Input
Amino acid sequence: MIVIDYKDSRPLYEQITDKMKDLILKGIIRSGDQLPSVRNLAMELSINPNTIQRAYAELEREGYIYTVKGRGNYVSDVGSLVEDRKMQLRKDICDRVVCAVEFGVDIEDILNDIRERGQA
Amino acid sequence: MIVIDYKDSRPLYEQITDKMKDLILKGIIRSGDQLPSVRNLAMELSINPNTIQRAYAELEREGYIYTVKGRGNYVSDVGSLVEDRKMQLRKDICDRVVCAVEFGVDIEDILNDIRERGQA
Amino acid sequence: MIVIDYKDSRPLYEQITDKMKDLILKGIIRSGDQLPSVRNLAMELSINPNTIQRAYAELEREGYIYTVKGRGNYVSDVGSLVEDRKMQLRKDICDRVVCAVEFGVDIEDILNDIRERGQA
Amino acid sequence: MIVIDYKDSRPLYEQITDKMKDLILKGIIRSGDQLPSVRNLAMELSINPNTIQRAYAELEREGYIYTVKGRGNYVSDVGSLVEDRKMQLRKDICDRVVCAVEFGVDIEDILNDIRERGQA
DNA sequence: GTGGTCTAGACCACT
DNA sequence: GTGGTCTAGACCACG
Output
């Protein structure tokens, strides 16, 4: 479910939190589901339990999961977080479009790119 | 012309290279223009000359400027770099649109956002 | 009567003892009343009987209840404990007022808040 | 400036963040001031640098300080945080008054306690 | 010199 | 078994 990319310059714990957020926000892991235990995930990914611990702490801090001591980590209800993320993604795209236009990109080219949806 | 943001988590030299690239690609500094000297810019920004040196070295490595020993640093002809950047910006926007759609954002919302050309 | 909040960071047994103390000190459960049995309460709350056991042991240790082997757990006479708690609550509020004043809160604002007896 | 209380059940890093927040919100450490370095403070308090690191990371996350890599940690402008804290303290006191009244404390006693400001 | 990340290993509290 | 805290020590990037 989660793959560590050692060529990625971001720290391991951030790769894990980001991937987990995606899985949760996209509904692949659902509200109430239990996450793999700190130790198990550490073994599976062959990294230190403290790194997983840090990732999970960050997820809890941001409201994606909640922790029950002695029981494990569980996914929270993230309805509002999904909406926040969607708005953020829209705003982010707009900002980049504005930036691109400043560099001389034709806005029609961008609209066409998107309509064809994908390209590369 | 250049403002350092100490609350920015990026290293200083990267803030400087990025800002310089923008100024060059947007044509605000033109091909053949001379950049401020390492010492002067360091004084002006109140930072270590080594940091400016590193920023300029990076700009030279990427072809934005060239150095004449004993004379100073000059802006290269960046015609092709501008086109590269424009393509990169378009690709980047497309990638993010694809990502946003995966999170459930309606592509029509994005197109409307862009047509109104502003924030969401 | 008792609700477990799994998102509460406190241990389960502490949530139970605290809630029980409130019920007893507020007189909702009275001196001589029998508490639900360890097994029943465990079943009702869907948690481990050991956890209930620990909560009851703590309540007994602090004098809120007494245990009759083979019969069950009964509420003690808690007259003095009620007074202790009231004094503790008054002291606690005063400490916090002193602290708030140190942060620049106007003591008149606090008095008004309390007279209106609600949130700020 | 900071004293560790080993009898305090809270984790060390939390004691440090809380104490630092107080110093900052009360204006004892001011906006722009540099905090002691991670290593220095660790030596001074005879605890592990990682623990200081965690405390500082938390302070940065909550907006009390900002970090410049290779330079150190500096106090942010916390005007709004001060107001937040004051409102939170007022609300907290009110909640406790409501709670105390439920336990049978006379609200006039509380008001008198506060007017005398302090007692114990 | 500064902070940031990661590992290894220990100990504790809770269930 | 679970997570939470702390230590010790290493390595890296930045200035």
